[in-house]
Amino acid sequence: MNSLPDGRVVTDPDVIDSYARDRTFVEPGKPLGVVLATSRDDVVTTMTWATEHRVPIVPRGAGSGLAGAATAGDGSVILSLAKMTAIREISPADEIAVVEPGVITADLDRAAREHGLMYAPDPSSYEISTIGGNLATNAGGLRCVKYGVTRDSTLGLEVVLADGRILDTGRRTMKGVTGYDLTGLFVGSEGTLGVITAATVRLRHAPAAPPATFAAEFGSLRDAGAAVSAIMAAGCQPSLMELLDRATLEAIDDWRNIGLEPSTHAMLIGQSDGTDGQAVAERMERLCMDNGASFVAVSSSPQETEELIGLRRMAYQAKERLGACLVEDVCVPRSVLPDMIGAIEAAAARHGVKICTVAHAGDGNLHPVFIFEHGMVEPPPEVWAAADEVFTHALELGGTLTGEHGVGLLKQRWLALESGPVAAEVQRGIKAVFDPLGILNPGKAIQPRSETVA
Question: Where's the FAD-binding PCMH-type domain (predicted)?
Fold first, then answer.
């Protein structure tokens, strides 16, 4: 890679180590070095060289992923896109933005709001995660119950393929069905099909007034789950609907002293950002009371709203203080959310494992976080056993192994349970078309041939 400008390639072992892992416990291999790309040309040069020398490339953004997708393997080169931070264009007339992959998600949203618009996807890590990482995993977030996941806000991509060719997918228009949907294919592909160097994303009108927010406390998770089902069945269309269990609330309380009551075993936080937001929030308040809430309050100021949403966003950091975390994100149909919650509680009790659960409850996406001792190379057997039960039950309920974090390395062991042999073979065929040498983030996202279901 001598053709890259000075300073782009880093081989110092300590610096390499800081780029070699994501936010999981997964130990990386020994990569050869790091490329700090600042432009599409840097990516093209890197991929052309990698194809010529058959060297694996591991693309990464901020490293905030929770599935091991950005974990570097032996003999690989890490391709960091974090320095590609340009917001190339914001078009209020067309309600779109063109951005590079290193743009922080919250920064794009703030830039859009200067024009009365917003970027809707908002993962909990939105202040540190990048647009490129969000695209790679098809990230969701707190507002996805109303606005959808990252794919729903992605119109087109600029992608550097494995051999260095540049592919433009999609469009700048809100509609378009020319050819196969290559944009949708790359979103969620975890860097296994190409390296995204720019994206055209959809912006939406920001709400004219701050959203109306409520918080409800429940004596059980099942009651909270039933309240979610009632709210969604009533057609309230919340813009946010988040559930926190007792173990998560205790972790936050130990850290920030939020005054958690002994009788509170679950908290539901919801928002409505429509023009009738206050009336909708009050309706959701009544439905919570009808389904067993011991206390419900509707916020009276933007400051109270920020405090409630901040409570949800600090959940993962609070759990990291307790130990190492195996973070999962099963998704089930909303109608069976209470059943899934019960299964998680039963698995924790049966195996003696601490599980802290939060959920994007409005779309059935649960994040059970399995806590184990810091310093362990991987979770102990009882954690894997509890996780097996949780995943198996989610699939039995018609759900999926991952709603937004992606497969990475951590979910490889369960892929065969969901995809089946035909889907696995088709996905490997797609991989071979875009990456015939298998150099792009090998071993991630899809089921290896050796694990095909018989």
Answer: 27-206
